[in-house]
Design a protein that fits this description.
Length: 141
């Protein structure tokens, strides 16, 4: 099948498939005229990559997972370890987002949101607002 068909069946853009080929994640055959010729095994790899990336695995993690996917003698413990590491990374990102939400909420609380030009949000973004004062302001609001 050609790259357009592989794209349609895998759910990946043609540009992404070309990139995956460039970095060695897929290696389609080339016909005599130089066109890519994807076989079923290539399509399975592309689907595997699409799903792995949709779950947040990095390119390097996908490379490792693909290696395990193709190794019939793999230990499932290896796959589980990679996935547990991803869960820890997701948990860390969730905490970062919670912290970010807290700061943004404090900024919104500190801002009067009226017709006056002074705004604690702008002050904070410009580095002119003291975070300790912001905490005090938000407690008083």
């Amino acid at each position: 099948m050609n790259i357009g068909e592989a794209s349609e069946q895998s759910g990946l853009p043609v540009k992404t498939i070309r990139y995956y080929e460039d970095i060695g994640l897929v290696r389609p055959l080339r016909s005599e005229n130089g066109y890519r010729d994807f076989i079923d095994a290539d399509l399975q790899r592309l689907k595997f990559l699409q799903r792995s990336r949709s779950l947040g695995f990095s390119i390097d993690e996908c490379r490792e997972l693909l290696s395990l996917y193709e190794d019939r003698n793999r230990a499932s413990a290896d796959v589980k370890a990679i996935t547990r590491a991803k869960i820890k990374e997701v948990d860390r990102k969730i905490e970062e987002l919670r912290s970010l939400k807290k700061v943004l909420s404090e900024l919104v609380t500190a801002c009067h949101g009226d017709d006056r030009p002074n705004c604690p949000i702008i002050d904070d973004l410009s580095g002119q607002h003291d975070h300790d004062q912001l905490d005090e302001d938000s407690r008083q609001a």
